[in-house]
Amino acid sequence: MHYPYIAPAGIIWMAPATSGWGTLVQGAQNRAEKDRRWPAMLRKLKGLRKRGRRAIRIVDADCGAGELLIHAVRRAREMGFVAIEGRGIDADPHLIASARRAAARHGDPAIGLVFEQDAMDKVLREEAEYPADLLLCPASDTDARELKALARTAADTVLWDRKSKPERG
Description:
Elements: H1 20-33, H2 38-50, E1 55-60, H3 67-78, E2 83-90, H4 93-104, E3 111-117, H5 120-127, E4 132-137, H6 144-154, E5 155-160
Helix pairs in contact: 1-3, 2-3, 5-6
Protein backbone atom coordinates (compact mmCIF):
# COMPACT_ATOMS: atom_id res chain seq x y z
CA MET A 1 0.00 0.00 0.00
CA HIS A 2 1.38 3.43 -0.93
CA TYR A 3 0.73 6.46 1.30
CA PRO A 4 1.16 9.99 0.02
CA TYR A 5 3.73 12.09 1.88
CA ILE A 6 2.20 14.46 4.39
CA ALA A 7 4.43 17.05 6.02
CA PRO A 8 4.47 16.92 9.83
CA ALA A 9 2.32 19.52 11.60
CA GLY A 10 4.08 22.80 12.16
CA ILE A 11 6.43 22.48 9.17
CA ILE A 12 5.92 25.40 6.83
CA TRP A 13 7.71 25.73 3.53
CA MET A 14 9.57 29.00 3.26
CA ALA A 15 10.24 30.56 -0.12
CA PRO A 16 13.89 31.31 -0.87
CA ALA A 17 15.02 34.89 -0.25
CA THR A 18 15.49 35.44 -3.97
CA SER A 19 11.78 35.05 -4.73
CA GLY A 20 9.38 37.99 -4.65
CA TRP A 21 7.89 36.88 -1.32
CA GLY A 22 11.31 36.39 0.29
CA THR A 23 12.39 39.83 -0.87
CA LEU A 24 9.27 41.40 0.66
CA VAL A 25 9.85 39.65 3.99
CA GLN A 26 13.53 40.65 4.04
CA GLY A 27 12.60 44.26 3.25
CA ALA A 28 10.10 44.35 6.13
CA GLN A 29 12.71 42.90 8.50
CA ASN A 30 15.29 45.46 7.42
CA ARG A 31 12.84 48.34 7.96
CA ALA A 32 11.86 46.96 11.39
CA GLU A 33 15.47 46.68 12.51
CA LYS A 34 16.14 50.29 11.43
CA ASP A 35 13.48 51.52 13.87
CA ARG A 36 15.13 53.52 16.65
CA ARG A 37 13.38 51.37 19.28
CA TRP A 38 14.69 48.06 17.92
CA PRO A 39 17.91 47.79 20.03
CA ALA A 40 16.02 48.60 23.26
CA MET A 41 13.33 46.10 22.33
CA LEU A 42 15.90 43.36 21.80
CA ARG A 43 17.51 44.14 25.16
CA LYS A 44 14.12 43.88 26.86
CA LEU A 45 13.31 40.55 25.17
CA LYS A 46 16.73 39.13 26.06
CA GLY A 47 16.39 40.32 29.64
CA LEU A 48 12.99 38.69 30.05
CA ARG A 49 14.25 35.38 28.62
CA LYS A 50 17.33 35.50 30.83
CA ARG A 51 15.01 35.80 33.85
CA GLY A 52 13.13 32.70 32.65
CA ARG A 53 10.07 34.29 31.07
CA ARG A 54 8.42 32.12 28.42
CA ALA A 55 5.42 34.32 27.59
CA ILE A 56 5.31 37.93 26.43
CA ARG A 57 2.76 40.50 25.38
CA ILE A 58 3.73 43.36 23.05
CA VAL A 59 1.47 46.25 22.02
CA ASP A 60 2.29 48.64 19.18
CA ALA A 61 0.11 51.73 19.65
CA ASP A 62 0.90 53.16 16.21
CA CYS A 63 1.65 50.01 14.22
CA GLY A 64 1.23 51.24 10.66
CA ALA A 65 1.43 48.18 8.39
CA GLY A 66 2.61 46.03 11.31
CA GLU A 67 6.19 45.40 10.19
CA LEU A 68 7.85 46.21 13.50
CA LEU A 69 5.37 44.25 15.62
CA ILE A 70 5.43 41.20 13.33
CA HIS A 71 9.22 41.17 13.29
CA ALA A 72 9.34 41.58 17.09
CA VAL A 73 7.01 38.64 17.78
CA ARG A 74 8.93 36.44 15.34
CA ARG A 75 12.22 37.39 17.02
CA ALA A 76 10.68 36.64 20.42
CA ARG A 77 9.76 33.18 19.14
CA GLU A 78 13.34 32.63 17.92
CA MET A 79 14.56 33.56 21.42
CA GLY A 80 12.48 30.79 22.96
CA PHE A 81 9.25 32.47 24.04
CA VAL A 82 6.45 29.91 23.68
CA ALA A 83 3.41 32.15 24.15
CA ILE A 84 3.58 35.46 22.33
CA GLU A 85 0.74 37.93 22.06
CA GLY A 86 0.99 40.96 19.77
CA ARG A 87 -1.59 43.75 19.44
CA GLY A 88 -1.23 46.44 16.82
CA ILE A 89 -3.33 49.61 16.74
CA ASP A 90 -3.53 52.28 14.07
CA ALA A 91 -6.13 54.84 12.99
CA ASP A 92 -5.56 54.20 9.26
CA PRO A 93 -7.82 51.41 7.93
CA HIS A 94 -5.57 50.80 4.90
CA LEU A 95 -2.51 50.22 7.09
CA ILE A 96 -4.48 47.90 9.38
CA ALA A 97 -5.65 45.90 6.36
CA SER A 98 -2.02 45.57 5.21
CA ALA A 99 -0.94 44.49 8.70
CA ARG A 100 -3.68 41.84 8.83
CA ARG A 101 -2.63 40.45 5.44
CA ALA A 102 1.02 40.30 6.54
CA ALA A 103 0.08 38.61 9.84
CA ALA A 104 -2.01 36.01 8.01
CA ARG A 105 1.14 34.79 6.25
CA HIS A 106 2.67 33.68 9.57
CA GLY A 107 1.34 30.39 10.84
CA ASP A 108 3.06 29.80 14.18
CA PRO A 109 0.54 28.65 16.82
CA ALA A 110 2.72 30.15 19.58
CA ILE A 111 2.15 33.64 18.14
CA GLY A 112 -1.15 35.47 18.38
CA LEU A 113 -1.36 38.69 16.37
CA VAL A 114 -4.30 41.09 16.36
CA PHE A 115 -4.48 44.34 14.41
CA GLU A 116 -7.24 46.84 15.15
CA GLN A 117 -8.27 50.23 13.84
CA ASP A 118 -8.83 52.35 16.93
CA ALA A 119 -7.83 55.47 18.84
CA MET A 120 -4.55 55.19 20.72
CA ASP A 121 -5.79 56.78 23.96
CA LYS A 122 -8.76 54.39 24.13
CA VAL A 123 -6.48 51.39 23.63
CA LEU A 124 -4.00 52.59 26.26
CA ARG A 125 -6.85 52.90 28.75
CA GLU A 126 -7.92 49.32 27.95
CA GLU A 127 -4.35 48.06 28.29
CA ALA A 128 -4.04 49.56 31.79
CA GLU A 129 -6.33 46.82 33.12
CA TYR A 130 -3.79 44.10 32.22
CA PRO A 131 -0.57 45.92 31.29
CA ALA A 132 1.54 44.59 28.44
CA ASP A 133 5.19 43.69 28.91
CA LEU A 134 6.25 46.05 26.16
CA LEU A 135 4.49 49.03 24.58
CA LEU A 136 5.73 50.72 21.41
CA CYS A 137 4.50 54.31 21.34
CA PRO A 138 4.89 57.15 18.84
CA ALA A 139 6.22 60.57 19.75
CA SER A 140 3.45 63.08 20.29
CA ASP A 141 3.47 66.85 20.57
CA THR A 142 -0.22 67.09 21.43
CA ASP A 143 -1.31 66.11 24.93
CA ALA A 144 2.14 64.65 25.59
CA ARG A 145 1.65 64.54 29.37
CA GLU A 146 -1.64 62.69 29.14
CA LEU A 147 -0.26 60.25 26.57
CA LYS A 148 2.83 59.55 28.69
CA ALA A 149 0.70 58.99 31.79
CA LEU A 150 -1.59 56.60 29.90
CA ALA A 151 1.38 54.73 28.42
CA ARG A 152 3.01 54.24 31.84
CA THR A 153 -0.14 52.51 33.10
CA ALA A 154 -0.53 50.41 29.94
CA ALA A 155 2.80 48.54 30.06
CA ASP A 156 5.75 47.56 32.19
CA THR A 157 8.15 49.04 29.61
CA VAL A 158 7.33 51.82 27.15
CA LEU A 159 9.57 52.47 24.15
CA TRP A 160 8.98 55.88 22.55
CA ASP A 161 9.65 56.66 18.93
CA ARG A 162 11.41 60.01 18.87
CA LYS A 163 10.66 60.43 15.18
CA SER A 164 7.02 61.16 14.40
CA LYS A 165 5.14 59.31 11.68
CA PRO A 166 5.12 61.10 8.29
CA GLU A 167 1.85 62.60 7.17
CA ARG A 168 0.00 60.80 4.38
CA GLY A 169 -0.99 62.92 1.45
